[in-house]
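3.2 Worked example (two chains)
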Amino acid sequence: KSISKFIGRLVTNNQAEYQAIIESLNQAEKLRATHIHLKIDSQLAQRQLTGQYKVKNAGIKVLWEKANRLINNFQEVTLEHIPREKNKEADKLVNEALCHLEKGSR
């Protein structure tokens, strides 16, 4: 399932990636999924959530904790890093959210 949602103007790409992960996990919970495979284009988020990297940024730490709490609700969660240049679907969804924002602000 694809989701496109505006999350604010003043967020970093890493904050946006974590918000997308959290939203995806929330949606998967609503669908009562037990095994989740997330394709994400942030290698940093993927490595932080799999324990390969530490989380040093306080703002990201809050989102990381929230994502981890959600991850623990599933039997299995895999996080696959997809390089941005190969992730056209994510770009399409971002553009949909921005287009929706522009239409709403007129």
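3.2.1 Second chain
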Amino acid sequence: MLDLGWVELAVVGVIALLVVGPKDLPKVLRTLGQWARRLRGLAREFQGHVDDMIRESDLDDLRDGVNTVRGRNLGRTLNKMVDPDGSVTRDLDEIDRRARQTGPAAPSGGRGGGGRGTVLDHGTDDPTGPADAPGPHAPGTPNPKSKAED
């Protein structure tokens, strides 16, 4: 701000006392305080308007950026970044074409695999194998717990 120390303030006070006089000095200081308060209020208001203009400017920039992104085809841009010469796309298309020509690799078991991959169907959802495979708890074999309970 003004960078006044105690010595400078004392000199200003003595000069004000000599120029204005002791009788009117409180009125002058009160008036100076009111003017300083008004100046601070005006400066605060001006700073608020400047901040609003900056905020609106930032919002306009942000709005322009969003509109730019909306106008771009992000899928095409991403595809160009990953596969700039198109070789991966050509290879995948060739693999897909060959897979459609040869058909499914294994019988689909009547579930309608549609040639989209190999479907192994053993007639059960059990990951251990088909239901008719012999196992320790298959039907027709005695349960080990029942022997221990007898």
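3.3 Remarks
Residues 7-73 form one domain.
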